[in-house]
Design a protein that fits this description.
Length: 268
Protein backbone atom coordinates (compact mmCIF):
# COMPACT_ATOMS: atom_id res chain seq x y z
CA UNK A 1 0.00 0.00 0.00
CA UNK A 2 2.73 2.42 0.92
CA UNK A 3 4.45 1.89 -2.44
CA UNK A 4 1.24 2.44 -4.40
CA UNK A 5 0.53 5.66 -2.48
CA UNK A 6 4.04 7.01 -3.14
CA UNK A 7 3.74 6.24 -6.82
CA UNK A 8 0.45 8.05 -7.08
CA UNK A 9 1.98 11.10 -5.43
CA UNK A 10 4.92 11.16 -7.83
CA UNK A 11 2.59 10.97 -10.82
CA UNK A 12 0.49 13.86 -9.49
CA UNK A 13 3.57 16.05 -8.93
CA UNK A 14 4.89 15.34 -12.41
CA UNK A 15 1.59 16.37 -13.96
CA UNK A 16 1.55 19.62 -11.98
CA UNK A 17 5.08 20.50 -13.04
CA UNK A 18 4.21 19.78 -16.64
CA UNK A 19 1.26 22.15 -16.52
CA UNK A 20 3.38 25.01 -15.10
CA UNK A 21 6.00 24.48 -17.78
CA UNK A 22 3.32 24.69 -20.43
CA UNK A 23 2.13 28.10 -19.11
CA UNK A 24 5.63 29.58 -18.91
CA UNK A 25 6.86 28.39 -22.28
CA UNK A 26 4.14 29.47 -24.74
CA UNK A 27 4.83 28.56 -28.34
CA UNK A 28 6.37 31.32 -30.49
CA UNK A 29 4.01 33.32 -32.72
CA UNK A 30 3.76 32.43 -36.38
CA UNK A 31 6.24 33.96 -38.80
CA UNK A 32 5.14 36.42 -41.44
CA UNK A 33 5.86 35.95 -45.14
CA UNK A 34 8.81 38.39 -44.87
CA UNK A 35 10.30 36.50 -41.99
CA UNK A 36 9.02 38.84 -39.30
CA UNK A 37 6.69 37.60 -36.63
CA UNK A 38 3.02 38.38 -36.92
CA UNK A 39 3.18 40.59 -33.86
CA UNK A 40 6.16 42.44 -35.25
CA UNK A 41 4.42 42.97 -38.59
CA UNK A 42 1.36 44.38 -36.89
CA UNK A 43 3.52 46.64 -34.78
CA UNK A 44 5.47 47.71 -37.84
CA UNK A 45 2.29 48.51 -39.78
CA UNK A 46 0.90 50.52 -36.88
CA UNK A 47 4.18 52.34 -36.49
CA UNK A 48 4.22 53.11 -40.19
CA UNK A 49 0.68 54.50 -40.04
CA UNK A 50 1.47 56.56 -36.95
CA UNK A 51 4.58 57.94 -38.59
CA UNK A 52 2.59 58.95 -41.67
CA UNK A 53 -0.04 60.71 -39.55
CA UNK A 54 2.67 62.55 -37.66
CA UNK A 55 4.25 63.76 -40.88
CA UNK A 56 0.88 64.99 -42.13
CA UNK A 57 0.24 66.82 -38.86
CA UNK A 58 3.65 68.41 -39.01
CA UNK A 59 3.02 69.62 -42.53
CA UNK A 60 -0.38 70.98 -41.59
CA UNK A 61 1.02 72.60 -38.47
CA UNK A 62 3.75 74.32 -40.43
CA UNK A 63 1.19 75.70 -42.85
CA UNK A 64 -1.42 76.80 -40.31
CA UNK A 65 1.17 78.01 -37.84
CA UNK A 66 2.72 80.48 -40.33
CA UNK A 67 1.70 84.18 -40.36
CA UNK A 68 2.01 87.36 -42.33
CA UNK A 69 4.06 89.79 -40.19
CA UNK A 70 2.49 93.21 -39.76
CA UNK A 71 3.94 96.55 -38.71
CA UNK A 72 3.66 97.83 -35.15
CA UNK A 73 4.56 101.32 -33.96
CA UNK A 74 5.92 102.43 -30.57
CA UNK A 75 2.99 103.57 -28.40
CA UNK A 76 4.44 105.42 -25.44
CA UNK A 77 1.14 106.76 -24.10
CA UNK A 78 -0.76 103.50 -24.74
CA UNK A 79 -3.67 105.15 -26.53
CA UNK A 80 -3.71 102.65 -29.40
CA UNK A 81 -2.00 105.07 -31.79
CA UNK A 82 1.74 104.74 -32.22
CA UNK A 83 4.36 107.31 -33.09
CA UNK A 84 5.19 107.48 -36.82
CA UNK A 85 8.62 106.11 -37.67
CA UNK A 86 10.61 103.16 -36.33
CA UNK A 87 7.95 100.45 -36.78
CA UNK A 88 8.77 96.80 -36.12
CA UNK A 89 7.52 93.80 -38.09
CA UNK A 90 5.97 91.02 -36.03
CA UNK A 91 3.19 88.42 -36.08
CA UNK A 92 2.04 89.50 -32.62
CA UNK A 93 1.98 92.92 -31.00
CA UNK A 94 5.22 93.60 -29.14
CA UNK A 95 4.81 95.17 -25.72
CA UNK A 96 4.29 98.92 -25.91
CA UNK A 97 3.36 98.95 -29.60
CA UNK A 98 0.16 99.75 -31.54
CA UNK A 99 -1.16 98.71 -34.97
CA UNK A 100 -1.49 102.36 -36.10
CA UNK A 101 1.35 104.81 -36.59
CA UNK A 102 -0.64 108.06 -36.78
CA UNK A 103 -0.21 109.75 -33.39
CA UNK A 104 0.91 113.38 -33.41
CA UNK A 105 1.90 113.39 -29.73
CA UNK A 106 2.79 110.00 -28.31
CA UNK A 107 3.31 111.37 -24.82
CA UNK A 108 -0.33 112.38 -24.26
CA UNK A 109 -3.18 109.81 -24.37
CA UNK A 110 -5.67 112.63 -24.99
CA UNK A 111 -4.06 113.44 -28.32
CA UNK A 112 -4.60 111.07 -31.25
CA UNK A 113 -6.77 110.83 -34.39
CA UNK A 114 -10.42 110.42 -33.47
CA UNK A 115 -10.15 112.07 -30.05
CA UNK A 116 -12.75 114.79 -29.49
CA UNK A 117 -11.31 118.30 -29.67
CA UNK A 118 -11.34 120.23 -26.40
CA UNK A 119 -10.49 123.79 -25.36
CA UNK A 120 -7.12 122.90 -23.88
CA UNK A 121 -4.49 124.38 -26.17
CA UNK A 122 -3.88 120.98 -27.81
CA UNK A 123 -4.57 119.50 -31.21
CA UNK A 124 -6.52 116.62 -29.64
CA UNK A 125 -7.57 114.97 -32.90
CA UNK A 126 -4.28 115.46 -34.80
CA UNK A 127 -5.94 117.31 -37.70
CA UNK A 128 -3.55 120.26 -37.58
CA UNK A 129 -6.16 122.58 -36.05
CA UNK A 130 -6.03 123.85 -32.49
CA UNK A 131 -9.09 124.00 -30.22
CA UNK A 132 -11.50 124.01 -33.18
CA UNK A 133 -15.24 123.43 -32.91
CA UNK A 134 -16.46 120.01 -31.77
CA UNK A 135 -19.41 118.51 -29.94
CA UNK A 136 -17.59 119.19 -26.67
CA UNK A 137 -16.05 122.48 -27.76
CA UNK A 138 -18.62 124.99 -29.10
CA UNK A 139 -16.69 127.94 -27.69
CA UNK A 140 -13.14 128.58 -26.53
CA UNK A 141 -11.02 131.53 -25.36
CA UNK A 142 -14.15 133.67 -25.25
CA UNK A 143 -14.95 132.99 -28.92
CA UNK A 144 -17.77 131.12 -30.63
CA UNK A 145 -16.49 128.36 -32.89
CA UNK A 146 -17.65 126.97 -36.21
CA UNK A 147 -16.40 124.90 -39.13
CA UNK A 148 -17.06 125.51 -42.79
CA UNK A 149 -15.54 123.97 -45.89
CA UNK A 150 -12.85 122.16 -43.93
CA UNK A 151 -11.73 125.35 -42.19
CA UNK A 152 -12.08 126.30 -38.53
CA UNK A 153 -13.31 129.71 -37.39
CA UNK A 154 -13.51 131.63 -34.13
CA UNK A 155 -15.77 134.67 -33.82
CA UNK A 156 -14.49 136.69 -30.88
CA UNK A 157 -16.49 139.40 -29.13
CA UNK A 158 -13.51 141.06 -27.49
CA UNK A 159 -11.80 144.40 -27.83
CA UNK A 160 -8.52 144.40 -29.70
CA UNK A 161 -6.67 146.46 -32.27
CA UNK A 162 -6.09 144.83 -35.65
CA UNK A 163 -2.57 143.76 -34.66
CA UNK A 164 -3.72 142.51 -31.24
CA UNK A 165 -6.53 140.54 -32.85
CA UNK A 166 -4.09 138.90 -35.22
CA UNK A 167 -1.79 137.99 -32.33
CA UNK A 168 -4.75 136.49 -30.43
CA UNK A 169 -5.68 134.31 -33.42
CA UNK A 170 -2.13 133.05 -33.74
CA UNK A 171 -1.68 132.39 -30.03
CA UNK A 172 -5.08 130.91 -29.15
CA UNK A 173 -5.89 128.92 -32.26
CA UNK A 174 -2.67 128.69 -34.31
CA UNK A 175 -4.74 130.64 -36.85
CA UNK A 176 -4.81 134.11 -38.41
CA UNK A 177 -7.40 136.76 -39.13
CA UNK A 178 -10.18 135.76 -41.49
CA UNK A 179 -9.55 135.49 -45.24
CA UNK A 180 -12.87 135.47 -47.10
CA UNK A 181 -13.09 133.68 -50.45
CA UNK A 182 -16.80 133.67 -51.28
CA UNK A 183 -20.32 134.52 -50.21
CA UNK A 184 -20.97 131.13 -48.63
CA UNK A 185 -18.00 131.50 -46.31
CA UNK A 186 -19.05 135.05 -45.45
CA UNK A 187 -22.60 133.94 -44.65
CA UNK A 188 -21.40 131.10 -42.39
CA UNK A 189 -19.36 133.53 -40.31
CA UNK A 190 -22.11 136.16 -40.21
CA UNK A 191 -24.62 133.58 -38.95
CA UNK A 192 -22.53 133.19 -35.81
CA UNK A 193 -21.52 136.84 -35.50
CA UNK A 194 -25.11 138.08 -35.70
CA UNK A 195 -26.08 135.73 -32.89
CA UNK A 196 -23.42 137.32 -30.68
CA UNK A 197 -24.61 140.83 -31.55
CA UNK A 198 -21.03 141.91 -32.21
CA UNK A 199 -21.17 145.35 -33.84
CA UNK A 200 -17.77 145.31 -35.53
CA UNK A 201 -15.29 142.57 -36.38
CA UNK A 202 -11.76 142.72 -37.76
CA UNK A 203 -10.98 140.52 -40.76
CA UNK A 204 -7.59 139.80 -42.29
CA UNK A 205 -7.33 142.48 -44.99
CA UNK A 206 -5.37 145.74 -44.98
CA UNK A 207 -3.48 148.19 -47.17
CA UNK A 208 -0.86 148.99 -44.54
CA UNK A 209 2.01 148.04 -46.86
CA UNK A 210 0.80 150.03 -49.88
CA UNK A 211 -2.04 152.54 -49.70
CA UNK A 212 -4.97 151.47 -51.81
CA UNK A 213 -3.59 147.97 -52.48
CA UNK A 214 -5.54 145.79 -50.07
CA UNK A 215 -4.17 142.30 -49.46
CA UNK A 216 -4.99 139.45 -47.11
CA UNK A 217 -2.77 138.45 -44.20
CA UNK A 218 -1.33 135.65 -46.34
CA UNK A 219 -0.15 138.22 -48.89
CA UNK A 220 -2.70 137.35 -51.56
CA UNK A 221 -4.71 140.12 -53.26
CA UNK A 222 -8.42 140.45 -52.61
CA UNK A 223 -10.45 138.28 -54.97
CA UNK A 224 -14.07 138.11 -53.90
CA UNK A 225 -15.05 141.32 -52.05
CA UNK A 226 -18.03 142.54 -50.08
CA UNK A 227 -17.45 146.28 -49.62
CA UNK A 228 -20.22 148.52 -48.35
CA UNK A 229 -21.36 151.35 -50.62
CA UNK A 230 -18.57 153.86 -51.35
CA UNK A 231 -16.00 151.85 -49.42
CA UNK A 232 -13.08 151.78 -48.99
CA UNK A 233 -12.67 155.55 -48.65
CA UNK A 234 -9.60 155.94 -46.37
CA UNK A 235 -11.44 158.58 -44.34
CA UNK A 236 -9.02 161.29 -43.19
CA UNK A 237 -6.21 159.13 -44.54
CA UNK A 238 -6.33 156.96 -41.40
CA UNK A 239 -8.18 153.82 -42.47
CA UNK A 240 -5.90 150.95 -43.45
CA UNK A 241 -7.55 147.85 -41.94
CA UNK A 242 -10.80 146.12 -42.85
CA UNK A 243 -13.77 145.36 -40.63
CA UNK A 244 -17.25 143.89 -41.02
CA UNK A 245 -19.95 146.14 -39.52
CA UNK A 246 -23.29 144.97 -38.19
CA UNK A 247 -24.97 148.25 -39.19
CA UNK A 248 -23.71 147.67 -42.75
CA UNK A 249 -25.27 144.17 -42.77
CA UNK A 250 -21.72 142.90 -42.15
CA UNK A 251 -20.44 144.39 -45.39
CA UNK A 252 -16.82 145.58 -45.35
CA UNK A 253 -15.47 148.94 -44.33
CA UNK A 254 -11.94 150.29 -44.01
CA UNK A 255 -11.21 151.53 -40.50
CA UNK A 256 -8.31 152.80 -38.34
CA UNK A 257 -6.19 149.80 -37.31
CA UNK A 258 -5.77 151.04 -33.73
CA UNK A 259 -9.46 150.84 -32.85
CA UNK A 260 -10.59 148.09 -30.44
CA UNK A 261 -13.08 145.71 -32.03
CA UNK A 262 -14.08 142.08 -32.07
CA UNK A 263 -12.39 139.79 -34.61
CA UNK A 264 -12.67 136.58 -36.60
CA UNK A 265 -9.93 133.94 -36.80
CA UNK A 266 -9.54 131.26 -39.46
CA UNK A 267 -7.36 128.15 -39.68
CA UNK A 268 -7.07 125.38 -42.19
Amino acid sequence: MRGAWLGACLVTMACALGAEGSDEAAPPPPMGSDGATGTGAATGDAGSTTSGASTSADATGASSGGCEPTLWWPDGDEDGHGEPGSPVSSCEAPAGHAPLGDDCDDQDPEIHPGFTEECDGKDNDCDGLLDEASAENPSCHGCELLEHGGHAYAVCAGDATWDEARTACQGDFAADLLVLDDQAEHDAVVAVASGLLVAELWIGASDVATEGAFVWVDGSPLGWTHWFIDQPDDFLGLEDCVEMREDFAYAWNDYPCDQALGWVCEAG
